Amino acid sequence: MSISTGDVKRIARLSRIAVNDAESEAVLSQLNEILGLIEEMQAVDTSGIEPMSHAQEIVLRLREDVVTEKDQHEAFQKDAPQVEAGLYLVPKVIE
Amino acid sequence: MFNSSLRALSAMLAERKISSVELTQEFLARIDRHNPDLNAYITVDPEKSLAQARIADSMIAEGRMQPMTGIPVAQKDIFCSKGWLTTCGSKMLSGFVSPYDAHVIEKFNAAGAVNLGKTNMDEFAMGSSNETSFFGPVKNPWDRKAVPGGSSGGSAAAVAARMAPAATGTDTGGSIRQPAALCGISGIKPTYGLVSRYGMIAFASSLDQGGPMAKSAEDLAIMLNLMAGHDSRDSTSLVRDEEDYTRDLDCPLEGLRIGLPKEYFAKGLSPAVEKAVQAAISEYQKLGAKVVEISLPNTRLSIPVYYVLAPAEASSNLSRYDGVRYGYRAQGYGDLVEMYEKTRAEGFGAEVKRRIMIGTYVLSHGYYDAYYIQAQKLRRLIARDFSEAFGQCDVIMGPTSPSAAFDLGEKSSDPVEMYLSDIYTIAVNLAGLPGMSIPAGFGENGRPIGLQIVGNYFSEAKMLNVAHQYQKNTDWHLRMPSIE
């Protein structure tokens, strides 16, 4: 199954990656090639096989619901593109 | 000195024949001389390294020495290291100074090892040639026209060129084993869950596993002793008794059953690699091992399965790069969505974007069962192939990579062609098994060839024993590229 330029735009939108018209043609052919490679899977009958989501059949541990980290927001915010008064700045989202 | 084993370096440090500061300076000088050409390191910070070396020297003076105390180690730039630029080979993190240490880094620091620098890698570990790095490709020390392999290509080249005694790597689909093979060094990807992923920048979390890269199996065992161990901050880190991975190095191989998967010696394998691997098997037979033909019938499906599961996990993991809390942010945007889209379009390279988009597609409504669930079912069949095979043999051997190192630029414009170069390594990650690569000869062009050894879960000590016995009887691992 192959995808269209419209699909590329939809996937790019879902991925939050801007793709312009010129790029989308190149991306389309590459994605179709990769999907062609993946397609080989579809021929195999897997009825009755349980999906394997993880390498080890382990049950994830739970821990006590207590604070384990100390407040380091100043150190962490040093890496942020835009910070003011201890808050991360983003474009206005609520009118 | 720069050719010495970890054990020899540790002995010299213990006997005060050299200090950690001197040893670190020696390697920093080699980095100065060779890195401008090889591009194996992204960040070198002599001041920081030497400060750690001074701490190591005082630990030694106080008699608080461990096997890795005072030894400089190159760290793959995927491991967050406090105060160090930690880029993961991406423009997205090209300004990211980590505020904390990965578990692996904490372990090296606590043992008094010296961080020699951060090594180059494919962007977010997505690649098999190191050509997707934002910081430019690494060159193979054996042949500057060749790729070093990937994604841990910087670590492999650094060890091969003796710009580090040992290094760390990570392996999601072959990223320790394939560059180790292509650069003529040794590397082991442990059983999934053995080495903590805390602070190891995530690519595909159900497959990612850190491990050591070094000149010999013995060095790997010493490194793994330090790197392995439970960490509550990684929810998939296994709780197990501490092991000494050097304990079985000297065991004889009499009676060892080596499984040779017929699918690993089929079409697509270069004659030079086949010849080298067969010669290694003959050497093992001389050491008393027996050969059993086995079958891993679903091998060919491992590539499509991997290219569904790994991108699916990556698309989720890499959603954190949004230009808000850390990392790159684009200039000139209107609303929040435009800021995300522009930031990610400019901050990620082409291969990372392709994988995020493939992952988003296979997880999207209407395709989830056909792709993602089908791939997870096939993953079980691939893992089952191995468990059946281990009923007949103790270790599995075969080529690490279908050919010796290819040329820079040879496969970079064809993603699918590049993906196929991981055909022998990917299934091991899907099953969560340990796998390693050791040097086993050279191709016609003088480029190294690796022998892959795959073991059952938690059989690292056995695999290292198998590799060490080969290295005691051959000298491929002692060869080094012709650089001063």
Structural description of this entry:
The complex is a heterodimer of chains A (about 100) and B (about 475). With about 100 residues, chain A is mostly helical. In chain A, about 35% of the residues lie in helices and about 5% in strands. Chain A has three helices and two strands, in the order αααββ. The longest helix of chain A is centred in the N-terminal third of the chain and has 19 residues, at about 20-40. Chain A is flat, with a radius of gyration of 22 Å. By secondary structure, chain B is of the alpha/beta class. Among the domains of chain B are: about 5-255, Amidase signature (AS) enzymes (Alpha-Beta Complex); about 300-375, no CATH class. Chain B starts with 5 loop residues before the first helix and ends in an 11-residue tail after the last helix. At the A-B interface, helix 1 and helix 2 of A face helix 9, helix 10, helix 11, helix 12 and helix 13 of B.
Q: Can you tell me the CATH topology of the domain at 6-255 in chain B?
A: Amidase signature (AS) enzymes
Q: CA-to-CA gap between the ends of chain B?
A: 12 Å
The CATH class of the domain at 6-255 in chain B is identified as Alpha Beta
Any guess at the CATH architecture of the domain at 6-255 in chain B?
Alpha-Beta Complex
Q: Which residue ranges of chain B are poorly predicted, with pLDDT under 50 across at least 5 consecutive positions?
A: none
Most extensive interface: A-B, 52 and 70 residues
Cα-atom Rg of chain B, whole angstroms? Answer: 21 Å
Give start-end ranges of low-pLDDT stretches of chain A: none
Helix content of chain A: 25-40%
Across the major sheet of chain B, the strand order is 4-6-5-10-11-9-7-8
Number of strands of chain A: 2
- Sheet with most strands of chain A: 2 strands, antiparallel
